[in-house]
What we know:
Blueprint: E1 15-18, E2 26-29, H1 32-36, E3 41-48, E4 53-59, E5 67-72, E6 76-83, E7 107-112, E8 121-126, E9 129-131, E10 141-142, H2 144-157, E11 159-164, E12 179-188, E13 191-192, H3 194-203, E14 208-210, E15 223-225, H4 237-241, H5 245-260, E16 278-283, H6 290-302, H7 311-315, H8 319-328, E17 333-337, H9 343-356, E18 362-370, H10 374-382, E19 412-421, H11 422-427, E20 434-443, H12 456-468, E21 476-481, H13 487-501, E22 509-512, H14 514-517, H15 524-538, E23 540-541, E24 557-558, E25 564-565, E26 572-579, E27 583-590, H16 594-597
Parallel strand pairs: 16-17, 16-18, 21-22, 21-26, 22-24
Antiparallel strand pairs: 1-6, 2-3, 2-6, 3-4, 4-5, 7-8, 7-11, 8-9, 9-10, 12-13, 12-19, 12-20, 14-15, 18-19, 20-27, 23-25, 26-27
Helix pairs in contact: 5-8, 9-15, 12-13
Amino acid sequence: MSNSSDTPEVPLHPHAVTAAEVVPGDLAALSLAQAERQEWCVVMHTLPESPETIRVTLRPPLGGPDRDVVLARGQEVVVAGRRLDVAAVPAVSSPRLDAVAFRDGDVVTRLRAVDPEGVEVTYRRRWGRWHRDLDTRTAQTVSDDVVRGWAADADRAGYVVRHHGRPTREPSAAGPRRVVVTGLGAITPLGSGTGELWQGLLDGRHGIRELEGEEFADLPVRTAGVVPVDPAALLPRAAARRMNRAARFAVLAAREAWGDAGFAEGGTRESGLDPERVGVSLGAILGDASVLVGADRKLREKGPRGVSPLTTPMTVPSQAASQVSLDLHITGEARTVTSACASGTEAIGQAVDRIRYGRVDVALAGGAEAVVTPAIMASFAAMRALSDLSPAAGTSPSRPFAKDRAGFVNGEGAGILVLESEEHARARGARIYCEAAGWGLSADAHHMAAPDPSGGGVALALRRAVRDAGGHIVDVVHVNAHATATTEGDLAEAGALRAVLGAGGGEVPVTALKGHLGHLQGAAGGVEAVAAVLTLHHGVVPPTVGCAEVDEEIGLDVVTGAPRALPGAGDLVLSNSFGFGGHNAVLALRRLPAADQEAVR
């Protein structure tokens, strides 16, 4: 019910008349004070009560119950100079809601029916509270008790309150499939495997160290997040020789994720899968920059014969994806995404869509990178982007969101998720970590390296991810921030998060992992997605290492010091990745009910 076109758009001109002068259709108030408060009624009937009195039946102009009043014929009342068709004014009464069991998804409408210009307000129930706007985290929410009070008092107070139960979902034609996460793998500066990664995050450890070797000796900055184990030593020698360092990381992370998902060691054939229905989608900026540098050195030292024939296939950024497909015999597709530091997150998003729309049933998605080389380090140092703080100072030299942040720390590694259509996962009784619910992209179109300080592009990607997940801003329970510990980047991202999350954004815990790991470049989105999945799975938010004091301009609830329990009111976690050139990518992961997460074996 709302103020509709049935109400004539005639300006109100309150003036006094006697009760004997009112006629059916008049818009009247019994006192000037009521008229000033916009408390009007429509005169429905008049009936002589006695020679001195008249009985008047009144009804709110936008609908409500009738009430009779007996007025002296000479008593002054206020009319509005507007006459309504009494047949068009509905007679309604607001039912009490005391016995109604509210559910999330229910709708309540509230209309101030005594105000001829009143507008119906809609409240939707989400996470046990009633919201006027699900896409703004605002303090303007009310409880179940308040809504029941509205209904109980509606007729007396001149309101019409209606409750609409959550609609029953009807069977629909086949559409996009739901995508879930069933396996995780990682190799990072905290060690080999997701166990080392997760425990290091919770313990507040970092894997940043001084680079050794004479090739780094003359660099102005010699700290990086490097993997502490030799990946070649964890692979068969013949296979490792045909892979660059990033591909080795990717294969190790993919093997772990494959096994974690419950598939058989060896690949698709051993697991009884159709290899044509499985895909790979990995992000990389360069992959392994050292191969080309090394080949150029050999060319100068030994001539053309000194250059290995494997140089070209081991140089291309797609080598990691191709090596994963070779290792696990995946023939559906092997895709590579190159969009700067957003590569890993975008690769996961593209895999989500490939499964949603039936191109494949299973995908390994994430990112791998190995660019801790003298030339790359020198380039970042020349940009004045690298932190010059020492890891020997007792805390991480990478300090996201911190008041004393000094720039980012270059890093390497790989993080990979196994994604599946929900029906495929359930058919084989897989353990499900969470839903890969949606993703969003945008471009800043601002500068080749610096972020747009307004954060507008980042905000667009955030909103698109939530919308693609079929959710609302009030559903966001945690953000895994990109936060590289550069002033421009941290402030732009924080501003975007404040703009999107709104006044209630301070209730959303935010963490940034680059204090633990450094910036893993094209692999960052993959590794941070693994951490975001584990955050949902365990219900624990890791702290932000290196952030002893949050910059007051950040204006977010940054988790520091110790892990924190994930809030219960909400189900979406956002994982952010932003890259040079204005590439913005956000992944939305949804927490499933506990019963849906356990394997059915």
